[in-house]
Specification:
CATH topology of the largest domain: TIM Barrel
Structural class: alpha/beta
Mean pLDDT: 95
CATH superfamily of the largest domain: Metal-dependent hydrolases
Number of helices: 12
Number of domains: 2
Helix content: 25-40%
CATH architecture of the largest domain: Alpha-Beta Barrel
Order of helices and strands: EEEEEEHHEHEHEHEHEEEHEHHEHHHEEE
Length: about 425
């Protein structure tokens, strides 16, 4: 049967509201119609999918993951020790975990060239993985953050050529490393690398080729350069400086940041990145030392800065950096939970994970909403996430492009 009718307790669409009396008709991988329950019997050629006790909402969009990274205590070391085939197998496993947890679209934020094969039709036919947007090796200065992925470029001509090369090899998005990063040996997160002019060159070249852009950014200077370079989305927005104790401190420069008020640029906070490292301290299992007290203070400041960015007019998307230290691929829901903890409403957190993410990826006409003509990327939850965002921890059912690809029986959260 090509047609499917999904009957649920309610359809929750972050753009259109809640429909408690409508069933969804799916045909050829897309949402074909909405019908009333008393009309279902007229559709004699359709398969009925009974989810009457569940809430249906759009599949989640995670705009920042690293499929080839291990998510263990030393992802860099793991990556350097694994063969290219091992990396690819791990990427497939991680992509499957994303899909089973309710993520129907994900953007890889930095990989080897070989990982671009994950978007090939033959791979999608033989594996249960989300719709993937690949960036390939990020653009970085020589010796810069993630340079080991093979994307070093030090001048405007080199950057232009690098963007064109990625488009040639099948990448759909361009990531540029505008500051240092913590994972790469010898790189310093508090240092800024590319100028606004260099960033704008990358953006202009990518835009001409129909590619989206995003920037790894840990400093205020990097944030300013990214905004002036018109980058598509700014990742992390950490505002790091090196404190007297030798640790990274988040410093919000009010005057500098306020010049961008109302600009409505997309940003990825990544509140859940590495969260598990301090679990024992939050639970009271052990008392923090002086360094850990500072880290907990910075965590609280991170939450405040996240809301300040929203108040500036910046639009949040959901990116978890899955693959880095203790940040797994089945916890996109946790980022939404922390967004709500920071001060977003459950509705705004869901918008970040659906319609904002779709627009950030320039796919707002195809995904991120439950509407006629949109891809049938749907998930089912036991409770209304607008009342309890934590219900997304246990996604009960997953549909991607009209095909059921995950149920309670194979959801990793339920094993």
């Amino acid at each position: 049967m090509s047609k499917k009718i999904i009957v649920s307790k309610a359809v929750l669409n972050t753009d259109l509201g809640i429909f408690e009396d409508k069933a969804i008709v799916v045909e050829n991988g897309k949402i074909f119609a909405f019908i009333a329950p008393n009309e279902i019997s007229q559709w004699t050629d359709a398969q009925i999918i009974d989810l009457k006790t569940r809430y249906i909402l759009p599949g989640l969009i995670n705009t920042h993951v690293h499929l080839e990274f291990s998510a263990l205590t030393n992802p860099y070391q793991d990556y350097m020790q694994e063969s290219s085939d091992e990396k690819l197998l791990l990427a497939l496993k991680n992509a499957e975990a994303l899909l089973q947890s309710g993520v129907t679209t994900a953007r890889d934020a930095g990989s080897s060239w070989k990982a671009l094969v994950l978007t090939k039709e033959i791979v999608k036919q033989r594996s249960k993985i989300p719709r993937l947007i690949m960036a390939g090796p990020p653009l970085t200065v020589t010796g810069g953050h993630l340079h080991f992925l093979g994307g070093e470029a030090d001048s405007i001509p080199e950057l232009i050529k690098a963007v064109r090369l990625r488009q040639k090899k099948g990448a759909e998005s361009i990531k540029i490393i505008v500051t240092g990063g913590g994972m790469t040996p010898g790189s310093h997160p508090e240092s800024t690398t590319y100028t606004a002019e260099e960033i704008k060159t990358v953006v202009d070249t990518a835009t001409h080729l129909g590619m989206t852009t995003f920037a790894h950014c840990h400093t205020t200077e990097g944030f300013v350069n990214s905004m002036e370079g018109n980058i598509g989305c700014i990742e992390h927005c950490s505002c790091f400086v090196l404190a007297k104790n030798g640790l990274l401190e988040r410093v919000w420069e009010e005057k500098v940041m306020n010049q961008f008020k109302g600009k409505q640029k997309f940003f990825m906070g990544g509140l859940s990145i590495g969260w598990r490292r301090l679990d024992d301290l939050r639970s009271g299992k052990r008392k923090p030392n002086e360094k850990e007290i500072f880290l907990l203070e910075q965590e609280a400041r991170f939450f405040k800065n996240f809301i300040k960015l929203v108040e500036l007019g910046m639009r949040p998307v959901v990116g978890t950096d899955a693959g880095v230290v203790l940040t797994t691929f089945d916890e996109t829901w946790f980022e939404l939970e922390l967004m709500v903890k920071a001060g977003l409403s459950p509705l705004d957190a869901l918008k970040a994970a659906t319609i904002n993410g779709a627009e950030c990826l320039e796919m707002e006409d195809a995904i991120g909403k439950i509407d006629m003509g949109y891809s049938a990327d749907l998930i089912a939850a036991t409770e209304n996430p607008l009342k309890n965002i934590n219900t997304l921890k246990n996604v009960e059912w997953v549909m991607l492009e009209g095909e059921i690809v995950g149920t309670v029986k194979n959801n990793r959260k339920k094993l």
